[in-house]
Queue: 2 jobs
Job 1
Amino acid sequence: MIRRHPQIDGQGRLRHLLSIDGLPKAMIERVLDTASAFLDVSDRTVKKLPLLRGRSVFNLFFENSTRTRTTFEIAAQRLSADVFNLNISASSASKGESLLDTIDNLAAMNADLFVVRHAQSGAPFLIAQHLDQLGKDVHVINAGDGRHEHPTQALLDAYTIRHFKKNFTGLRIALVGDILHSRVARSNIHALTTLGVPDVRAVGPATLLPGGLESMGVRVFHDMREGLRDVDVVIMLRLQNERMRGALLPSAQEYFKHYGLTPEKLAYAAPDAIVMHPGPMNRGVEIDSAVADGPQAVILSQVTFGIAVRMAVLGMIAA
Amino acid sequence: MNTPTRDPDDTLGAVDADRAYVHLLDQLRTVLADEGRSPILVGVHSGGAWLAERLHADLCLSSPLGYLSSAFHRDDYGSRGLPTNIKPTVLPFDVEGADLIVVDDVLFTGRTARATLNELFDHGRPARVELAVLADRGGRELPISARFVGASVLLGGTHQLVLSQDTQGHFSFRVESGPR
């Protein structure tokens, strides 16, 4: 028996958004198309749509976040939802309450949608499964779980790439840096290969690249200049010091020397290559300020597009 | 003009779309000349957009052409969700104080017209909004009426009147069965 992925319902509609892995190409494209229709809402006289009026969106961040939580909050408010931000790490969990007890309590407050960030991989999946088993009509969006996935970041990255490069076929895209600890990289690899990007590359030191990348359709490079040669898109990743255990790197300075994106290294990419970063950036560690603030950087566009993409996901899920 | 004429060939519940178009164009030409107006046409995606483009050309209007989506204000979002392939609202003019004619292919329950009015008012407060449709098929569920109507036809609630446009720009209607 083929088990249905819990994020897709019996009618093929998006019920939860837990991972890019398992999301059909047509569904990813539908999110991107829907997001483009939401993009101009910020320019209207009335910057609000009524789709989620009367719905309650709970932002459950068991791990710190500013950008993701804020853009989810703006997206939900633009759709007229009531938004509740819970900093769980500072409340119930620290008093010993279990994850699912916390969820049961919040569901009893008539939540319609949970946006969940958690340090443990699979936590949003567990929550969605638990709610489905209880028969609760509550939706779950994964806003980043451990090293596993960050699906809305991958969707907004795909939106940004499509905006600047028009389509995915024929592109060369390099993900550079700490791929081992990066849920953004994992989601991006799934999204880009599903969307038909023929050349997806992972560039970084062997200590920060996980095994099995080739089986995901990714070419691995340890030399940054080789990895960046002729690419159309460079996605830089943050060095995730908070997730590192053991001596994976000699020093931040040494890392910058080999894998920091400088104008000199960027010159190996195509002349019209765009530079992306999910933020927060460590200037002088993975990216040089001359590149971060330069004409090829589209990092702030990613933030703007992130609101439209999250509106699209919320609008598609909450119906 | 407020009382639409019944298409004489309307025996099977369909209308001759090109004849309805000519009738609609004549009404608009007469009224705009009589009232000395040069309004902005705004087509409702998708059929209304085709119709607005053809009217805009045939009326030789110099004003810009706008497009409206009803997707974000539909009252059936809770049961049907967001439609696929949402075409964006494009209003390349200042809605505030504008004289507008919203153009759609079919007027039925009035719910799409209500949604497009809400969409329009998210962009400003027009001075006047009128409605022009190629076919009024009755069955209104909201207090909405069109000033300009190409043809009227009575269709059962389980049927849909669907507009097509061929490569030469000619219109045709077909009747489809199934829930709306």
Job 2
Amino acid sequence: MRLLIVEDNRALLKSLKKGLEEESFAVDTAEDGEEGLFLAEANDYDVVILDLMIPKMDGLTLLRKVRAKGLSTHILILTARDAPEDKVRGLDTGADDYLTKPFRFEELLARVRALLRRKYQAKNPRLIVADLEIDTAAHTVVRGSLAIILQPKEYALLEYLAHRSGEIVSRSEIWEHLYDWQDDTTSNLIDVFISRLRKKIDRPGLRPLIQTVRGAGYLLKGE
Amino acid sequence: MRSLRLKLIVGFLLVLTAVILSFDGFIFVAKGNALLDILDSRLFAESQSLARRLEITNGKPAFDLVDDNGLKPAISSFIRIVDENGLIVHQSPNSPEIPWPAFPKNAAVPHQATARLDRTQSAQSDHQRKVASPASPVWKTVRSSRSKIWRTVTWVDHLEIDAVSGEKNAVLPETTTAVAIQCAESLAETKEELRELASLLAVLSLAAFLIAGGGSFLLAGWALRPIRRINKALAGVSETRLDRRIDPKGFDRELHPLIEQLNAALDRLEKGFQRERQFTADASHELRTPLAAILNTIEVLLRRPRRDQELIEAHHDNLRTARSMQAIIEGLLLLARMDAGKAHPAKEEIPLLPLVTDIYAAIGPEAEAGTVRLEQAIEPELRVLADPSQLRLALSNLVDNAVRYNRPNGSVTIKARTEGGGTTIEVGDTGIGIPAEHLPRIFERFYRVDPSRTEATGGSGLGLSIVRKIVEAHNGRVTAASGPEGSVVTVFLPDA
């Protein structure tokens, strides 16, 4: 899952990026409104975390422009402004959620996860494909009765495929949702992660869940 | 007595009482005088009438009390006739004890009886002394021993010695040429009449007082009604509803200035509250963001085991953030202390050059990192009247800004000169300048030309407002000017 953080306090930006990346998110950052708008328009972010008082273009203007362009990215406002009228204005301008500083990182994570569920139209935080079960809150994966340990990128890949289970997902889509723009990973690496994931999930004797669609991409399917 | 209504009523009633009392007094005195006048003229008339009927035959006085028509005149007074030696010639019978006035000394005695009744003139007797008409009557009020008050009239008349004297049982000696005719009447009736008048006036006055008192109570209430209305209108204005104003329409013209003043005061109050709210919101924002950064850094750190390098880096990050919070908090505390009127400048004459050199030395390393030259043009003997630590803080903040917003290889220059009863200090930079529309507001708290709070520019957002506060505490002025080649902040500190 790929996020954008628009925040001008570098210390906060740095710790947010670090914390979210450790939760296997791909994180892009912007320190002012213009850069934030540029990135938001250029990439299909799953969630944008947006500060309001930022240089060059304030957060609400950015939000308005993003919505005017018809982008449906889920946007969470993260600001020190805690007045009810600010919250109303923020949500009514097109934000999907509003969190005030200072905040608990756990809460921010939970809200980001909730926005992701909303985006992929999943009510259940446990994603179930056949006998594979993914707990998106705890980041644990179980197949049958066997717990599977995954590396963060492997988990991110599996969660993305599970969110879109039954659909063919192209390599570039996977790439776009797993890596931030600074990563110079090539899409070949995705094949590597897919094969690693297969080894852990589709063990010999089990029915394979991850299928390769030649020339199109990959498919996670129950039956 | 702190009630306006009570004051109005009492004041009105005091005036009313004075008016009523003087009116009563006037009526009472006028009526008394009128009654006395009537009494006096009656007394005098009676005395004249009696005098005309007096016939002194051979030194014996006698009254002819029956007039030509056979009628007795109505005489209610007592009469006495006395000669200049105090000899009582005649006194009314049954006369009570009256302290008669003495025979008037130096009384003007007419040489001749001035008038004469026809009747006495035509009297046949040759042997008579006749009392003729009076001259200059004197009225007097006397008090008898039994505290009875009498009104007397005394006048002197010439006696015509007509004829034979030497009568044996003459009452009057031959030598008597003039007698005093005195008449007295009790004032009891007059007094009674006046007492009745007084009672009547008292009753009427009391009634007027009560009616006017009630009226003034209502009138005062009516006059004060707009105050109650203004009060009611003001009651609707609270801290959260400061935008309300009193509409002068529907109020009397006299109250319009008051209402305008009240509305103007409300305007100022509202602006003050707005500033205060904005300031509080700004301050909380400025503090919450770095606080969020520190908390988040620690929270993320604690989610899993960390390498030493990560821990050290996080500590550095938090230290830097905490320092920026410290700068804001110290700035806020200083401003609050100065707002509260504490932190009075302890002024003394200090040489400016060493102070500037000190500030440059402290800020130097930072400036060198951005390659900004620090320059000054200050006479070594120039002295400034200021609080040394406050002036140091103000100049440090200005130099700090000048360095921070400078361009690479730019410079900061401090110039100073004595002029206009004080010292002018200019801090100039070669930076990006300040757009004209921002110039009037840069001394406001947390005001930023660019609302960025990145550490690239840093600062607490309070530096210039602290400068202004310090300069104002010194009764000085601070202004800013900006152009394409940089900005200049000018501080003027008066010598007194």
